[in-house]
TrEMBL record:
This protein's name: Single-stranded-DNA-specific exonuclease RecJ
Entries under SUPFAM superfamilies matching the protein: DHH phosphoesterases (SSF64182)
InterPro entries: DDH_dom, DHH_sf, DHHA1_dom, RecJ, RecJ_OB, SSDNA_exonuclease_RecJ
Tree of life domain: Bacteria
Domain DHHA1 span(s) in chain numbering: 349-444
Listed GO MF terms: 5'-3' exonuclease activity; nucleic acid binding
Gene: recJ
Length: 691
């Protein structure tokens, strides 16, 4: 069995690693990981390893921050109504919530507005601006949106309604004519870090206000919620994003916010469970997102801003129920998409999947597109058809820009946008087939040969003897892991000491490897399919992450497996001997001097005939009538690859005597015993030729 992934190993700069190790008193392994992440100068190393409140940048380094703060404080002082205009995703929900709570806490008359995803769509719209103005608002502050709202800001200005824009998305050639436009991606913004999420930018506004109002100690509690939006928006966990998440993860499990506490509880987290980016990304954020995807995101904000525990519990339960509904809907769409793909698409000749249906809810097809891409490891586009218009989402794989691919067929779209890994679009239903055709032609001409093979990159190769509890505790300082700061992966080699399937459904793998009497346990979740390809005493390479296994008060290092590379040399030898055997078989086993017949070790003994037949009988009783040769060799105690010749000879004799029927495909043996037949071995012509 080949590894599932292409393995890449980062190149080690020995001189740089030695310098970092000596200067900062780091282990060679830790220094290597930092070098791999290009964290090599003192200020970056200090910020990375010692993330704290004092490492936040001055918020007034952000363009227009002074103007925004002045206008907001004026509104507070004059008791003018402020409306926060947010987005309906988790970033928008958390952005709106933290700014609302801080302004409310500081005496502002404040309201919020979230557009309905299904009825209004993304961004600031004219009708919303007019409605907010009619409600008496004097100042709109956008969060996680607004950088492209040029016409809507002009409309607000004509109504005498001020706007402050805070956003983190890419700017267009011109920006809105607002009182202030705060976006770290502005070309004229000199802020040191431009990868904040929308909620990160909103927090910097709070940070700036707190400096002016003299209550900076009151803002750090909001980091719990800021971290949720930061992780959910999949921004790199570097620099200030790292500080936000690292500080928040220390306090979040005992959070002050009753809404977040209720959400964590319904997400299945126990009180002592460590909060990680994975917990937020896979448990907490989807529950917040569910409301927005299926319509109204306001309950997410109500959850965070309420101080009533019972109300928070009630909202969290409803969000959980909607998430279950979203999961069911998602699964139905996924199953139908797989059926359409399997029935209608020739995957051997398809590089980009395009599938469409009028049954799909466009609020969740982005998630399903991600799952389709993961399943088939191909860029995928799923389209929801309604009234002759197909609206959809695209997801890609590393190394292929789906946005550039869409640009090659932009004339087909009513509108489209996105980036390298994800995009959205709408087009006429009649153009779907043409879209599929053009995109696959484009991919055929531009895609690299290995693009559609998933890849894993390891930081370094490590000896088992160097893996220890102190080392893993040092590596833990690199947390929190996420986009831009992946958990370090290692390659280690050794001999298989033990391997078995574990779990209620035996779908996980546990193994032990040793290298010069140094032992390491490995766990592979969902990797039981490797079991048949792994033989005890054989060499093996493992790729995975390191952690500490605590059991009954004992701590041991272990590797969490991402991929396995069994001993291919043994398998290749088996294949060579199998080909040799076929040559002998084709020559009708004639001649004592041909092939393996010169080697007395591989000529089967009478006892080996008995052992092989009995082993096959036992396998049949266990309903295992297909088995890979490597595993069968292990069961028979055949350690040398040339012993496959012994096994194959016995199978041929049994076949000639009609004791069994067998076939070999991809080095897998399938057999069926014909019981009740009594014969003698010497009735076989093959047996008589070789014995």
């Amino acid at each position: 069995m080949e590894p599932k992934y292409i393995w890449n190993l980062k190149q080690k700069n020995e001189k740089l690693v030695d310098e970092l190790s000596e200067k900062y008193k780091l282990s060679t392994i830790m220094a290597t990981i930092l070098a791999n992440r290009n964290i090599v100068v003192e200020k970056d190393i200090v910020r990375f390893l010692n993330a704290d409140k004092d490492k936040f940048y001055d918020p007034y380094l952000m363009k227009d921050m002074d103007k925004a703060v002045e206008r907001i404080i004026t509104a507070i002082d004059k008791n003018e109504k402020i409306t926060i205009y947010g987005d309906y995703d988790v970033d928008g929900i958390t952005s709106t919530s933290v700014l609302y709570m801080y302004l409310k806490e500081n005496g502002a008359e404040v309201d919020y507005y979230i557009p309905n995803r299904l009825e209004e769509g993304y961004g600031v719209n004219d009708d919303a601006v007019k409605s907010i103005h009619q409600g008496g608002t004097k100042l709109i502050i956008t969060v996680d949106t607004g950088i492209t709202a040029i016409l809507q800001v002009d409309l607000a200005n004509s109504l005498g309604l001020d706007m402050v824009i805070t956003d983190h998305h890419e700017c267009q050639e011109s920006i809105p004519d607002a009182v202030a436009v705060i976006d770290p991606k502005r070309e004229d913004c000199g802020y040191p870090f431009d990868m904040l999420a929308g909620v990160g930018v909103a927090f910097k506004v709070i940070h700036a206000l707190s400096i002016k109002l003299g209550n900076i100690d009151s803002i750090w509690k909001y980091l719990d919620i800021v971290a949720v939006g930061t992780v959910a928006d999949i921004v790199p966990l570097k620099d200030e994003n790292r500080i936000i998440t690292k500080l928040a993860f220390k306090t979040m499990k005992d959070t002050w916010n009753v809404g977040l506490k209720a959400l964590i509880k319904v997400s299945g987290n126990k009180k002592d469970d460590k909060i990680t980016a994975g917990i937020i990304g896979f448990r907490i954020a989807p529950r917040l997102n569910a409301a927005g995807r299926l319509g109204d995101a306001k309950r997410g904000i109500e959850l965070f801003i309420t101080e009533d525990k019972n109300k928070a519990d009630d909202i969290a339960e409803k969000l959980n129920e909607e998430n279950i509904l979203r999961q069911q809907l998602e699964q139905e769409i996924f199953d139908e998409a797989v059926h359409i793909i399997e029935e209608n698409i020739d995957m051997d000749n398809t590089k980009i999947i395009v599938a469409a249906s009028s049954n799909w809810h466009h609020g969740v097809i982005g998630i399903v597109a991600s799952r389709i891409t993961e399943k088939y490891y191909r860029p995928s586009i799923l389209l929801s058809i309604e009234d002759g218009v197909a609206t959809g989402s695209a997801r890609s794989v590393d190394g292929f820009s789906i946005f550039e691919a869409l640009c090659s067929t932009k004339e087909l779209f009513m509108k489209f946008g996105g980036h390298e890994m994800a995009a959205g679009m709408s087009l006429k239903e009649e153009n779907i087939d043409r879209l599929r055709e053009i995109l696959n032609e484009y991919a055929e001409n531009t895609m690299e040969s290995d693009t559609l093979i998933p890849k894993l990159t390891a930081d370094m190769e490590i000896d088992i003897k160097d893996i220890s509890i102190p080392l893993i505790e040092e590596i833990i300082k690199l947390e929190p892991y996420g986009v831009g700061n992946p958990e370090p992966k290692f390659i280690c080699k050794g001999k298989v000491n033990d391997v078995r399937k574990i779990g209620k459904e035996s779908n996980h793998l546990k193994m032990r490897v040793d290298y010069n009497k140094n032992y390491l346990d490995g766990i592979g979740f969902g990797m039981a399919q490797y079991y048949d390809y792994i033989n005890v005493t054989h060499d093996i390479s493992l790729l995975g992450t390191l952690n500490i296994n605590e059991w009954n008060g004992t701590k041991k290092p272990q590797i969490m497996l991402k991929d396995i590379n069994p001993n291919n040399e043994f398998v290749e030898s088996l294949k060579r001997y199998y080909d040799e055997f076929n040559n002998i078989k084709n020559a009708n086993f004639d001649g004592k001097t041909k092939g393996y017949l010169q080697d007395e070790q591989v000529i089967p003994t009478r006892k080996e005939f008995e052992t092989i037949y009995r082993t096959l009988l036992n396998l049949e009783k266990q309903m295992k009538e297909t088995i890979i040769f490597t595993k069968l060799m292990q069961l028979l105690g055949f350690e040398q690859p040339n012993k496959i010749l012994t096994l194959l000879t016995c199978l041929e004799v049994f076949s000639e005597l009609r004791l069994l029927e067998y076939r070999v495909e991809n080095m897998n043996l399938s057999f069926k015993l014909n019981k009740g037949i009594r014969v003698k071995l010497d009735e076989s012509s093959i047996y008589n030729k070789i014995i």
